[in-house]
Structure formats: C-alpha cells, structure tokens
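Hey,
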Amino acid sequence: MKNLNKILLKSITVLTITVMLFSCSNNTQEVRDFLASKNLPIGVAKDAFHVYKDSGRITSKLITPLLNDFSNRKQHPYNEFPEGVKIINFEGKDSVTVSGNYALSYSNTQISELVGNVVVINHAENSKLETEQLFWDQNTQYFFSEKAFTLSTLKDTIYGVGFESKEDLSQHLAKKTIGRLETIEE
C-alpha cells in the first residue's frame, strides 16, 4: 500500500508539472501588453553607456545610472532616465555636453525633456546654458525652454525666462531678458 501511495503521489506531481509547462505561452506581444497595462518598463539598464555611430564615426555618447525602456507603449513609446543623464555630442572637433537630473525621450516625436539642474556646455565656444527644464528636438537639433535660464559666454552672461537655440547654443533667442552682465575686455 505504501508503494502504491508513493507511485500515485509521484504520478500526480509529474502530471501537474507537465500541465503547467505546456499551459504557458511564449507570445511576446502578450507579455508587452501585460507590462504596458501595469505601467512597467519592458527593459531596465543600470549604469548604461551607449555610443552612437554614423558611418563608423562616433557621433555621441549617452551615460546614465538607470534607463527604463517603455518602448512597449502603443501611443507614445519613450525612455525614462530617472536618475539623470549625460549626453556628449561630437561635431567634428567640437563637442556639446547636455546633462540633467531626470529625462524623458519620446521615440516617435524625437523630442526629449530634461528636468532639474539642466546644463548644456559648448566646449569649443566656452558657452554654458543652465536651466531647470529644457526640451530638445533631435530632428531639428534645437533646444527650447520656457523656464528661467542663465547663458554664460566668454563676453557676457544673460539671465532670462524662455530660451531657444541650436543645440550648440549658437543663434540663440532669449524671449524675456531679465538682466545682462557684461564683462570688460582687457
């Protein structure tokens, strides 16, 4: 009788495990939809370092402690950088560094939003933009903000609210200038 109970218990266990294994599906779309419905990222990268290349030449680098990939969203897929991001763009010998405490990048529109201690530095021109929020249109390579900003160049410092410029800080437009501090050339 003991042997019969052992055999019966083992048979039930094997049958249960077999049913569980064959009942699982491997439909990727179902998994994506489930993650989207629960507002979960499809992927998470820690200490990410991504190099972008064009024709074998490095064009930019992205560095972030944490990247959440929400590309499973049907309407507005995006990437989230909840612990900040630093992007270094290379144009020939010139480079521009963009950093912020938090960022969102929408893949459909190619618009990115940086928030908190946003700093843009053009290393070749020694110019620096500081603001609390900045939008970046990657298609037109253009920055814009409606927040207070400080733009420092070799010749002066401009304070204002509302700002637009090319991504290398050239051809900028200050919408409302609050003040300007001019340096005296020696």
